[in-house]
Write a structure and sequence with these properties.
The protein contains 1 helix and no strands. By secondary structure, it is mainly α.
């Protein structure tokens, strides 16, 4: 993941990972609620 050095490296890499994961979680939750719940819940 050498390209992360462009973001500042070190703690900045952790920050970006947290940000990306947070966005994915929000999108998954939004998709789940917009379809009436988690897949398989009926």
């Amino acid at each position: 993941m050498h390209w992360f050095n462009g973001f500042g490296g070190g703690w900045m890499m952790i920050f970006w990972w947290i940000l990306i994961i947070a966005v994915i979680v929000v999108l998954v939750k939004w998709a789940a609620t917009s379809t009436g719940g988690w897949p398989g819940n009926g």
